[in-house]
Amino acid sequence: MIEHLLHPRITENKDWATFLFILSFAIIAFTKSTNENRFADFMNLLFSDKYNKMYRDGNQMNSGFNISLFFAQVISFAFFIQLTLTLFGYASKTDFILYIQIVTFLVFFILSKYLLEKIIATAFNIEEFVQQFNLQKVTYRTYIGLILLPINVILFYYDTIPRIIPLTIMYIMLAFSAITYLISIKKYHNLIFGNLFYFILYLCTLEIAPYFFVYYFITKGGA
């Protein structure tokens, strides 16, 4: 008598990821179609400062352009985080529940930080500085998120990606963020030196401490 051993066929559900990638590109396409000139200036941000000069008003933070691209960048960053964890053996790239957790954390972290910035800016009467400084940071962060989106598609659908690739991308992102941060400081140096004490307080409480606590939580949680 011949025994037949049945092994369950494990298939990974990637439909949710495909839907989110399509949704992200649809959001970008819609934003481009409704703001063609602004989107063109935005995508040329790496080579020209025209966008920052034209849209430097702090009220632009809550514009439809920024809000729509906010969702696209959150989707993009969440994918990159999960894919990086997958390549290092800490997660599965098809784990939808984990992805939702990452998205929730990112949204909570970004919005909490933004609200805290508004409170501190109002308390110390530095609203103008914080609005302009934060707007420029958000602009460059959104730019990174959109550039990262097609890279995420490649990382997701190819299984033979070496670990050095996400590490290289992270180093490039950190270098780009540092450069844009220095550009922002140079651009608003008059406001900064006029409020040097408050800028140092802002730097410590909102630009260093949150990331330190996130790092501490992750490293302790994984221990």
How would you sum up this structure, described in words?
The chain has 223 residues and is mainly alpha-helical. Helices cover 78% and strands 0% of the residues. Helix 1 crosses helix 2 and helix 4 crosses helix 6. It is globular and about 55 Å long. The termini are far apart. Mean pLDDT is 79; it is low at 1-11.
Proportion of residues in β-strands: under 5%
Mean pLDDT: 79
Order of helices and strands: HHHHHHHHH
The radius of gyration is 20 Å
Q: Tally the beta strands.
A: 0
**In whole angstroms, how far apart are the ends?**
51 Å
Helix share bin = over 70%
Largest sheet, strands/sense/barrel:
none
Low-pLDDT runs: 1-11
- Judged by helices, strands and strand pairing, the structural class is mainly alpha
The coarse overall form would be globular
Number of helices: 9
How is this structure best summarized?
The protein has nine helices and no strands.
Please tag this protein with its features.
223 residues; mainly alpha; disordered N terminus
Helix-strand layout with pairing:
Blueprint: H1 15-34, H2 36-43, H3 50-54, H4 64-87, H5 96-123, H6 127-157, H7 164-187, H8 189-194, H9 196-222
Helix pairs in contact: 1-2, 1-4, 4-5, 4-6, 5-6, 6-7
